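Hi Y.,

Following your request, here is the sequence exactly as I used it, all 196 residues.
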Amino acid sequence: MMVYIWTRIYFYHILQQAKINFKNMYNETVEKLDNVISEKKVIEEEKQISKTELDAIIKTFPDVTQLIKEEQKRIKEDDEAESDPHKGKFGGLSENFGRKINATVRETSYDKELFVVDLEVTSTNPDKPLLGMVKFHLHPSFPVDDVEVDAVNGKAEYKLISYGAFTVGIEADGGTTRLELDLAQLPDAPKLFKER
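Below is the corresponding structure, written out as tokens. Let me know if you'd prefer a different format.
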């Protein structure tokens, strides 16, 4: 009876605290990985970085790729209705008002279940170049899901690592231009990426 009462009163709180601790550990670890990737330019110069350097980065944080996969998969499975929350929220068009969003997806060189996503917002009107900040709305499973990027030479580019496909929402021209792109609809994206 004492064990039963203990599990009903105390064990639940222990489980909740363990869940919070795991979430905090996940966020801290992903932030560290982002810093390492940024410093080594793993994404931007992935083809130029040797396999030895990549292995060294991954060995520094051996559990990060698994954490990313498990956390993003768990969040998607928790609520299927909200698995793609930006779908249809930004007008449904990838090109509008002289602006266009493009994306390419490829496997990372160190894990075939994680993918590098290159996002690019450009102008389709030479008389109306893309200027100022462009806001990228990502899936909520990312530690930072709203990212602002300054347009450089008429382009706003952002690279990320993802476990699966989702809809990207875009705000440009001070929020007056809204675009969206469902990455699962990209014809050249890997099949495994699009199915998730």
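The radius of gyration is 20 Å.

Thanks again,
Q.
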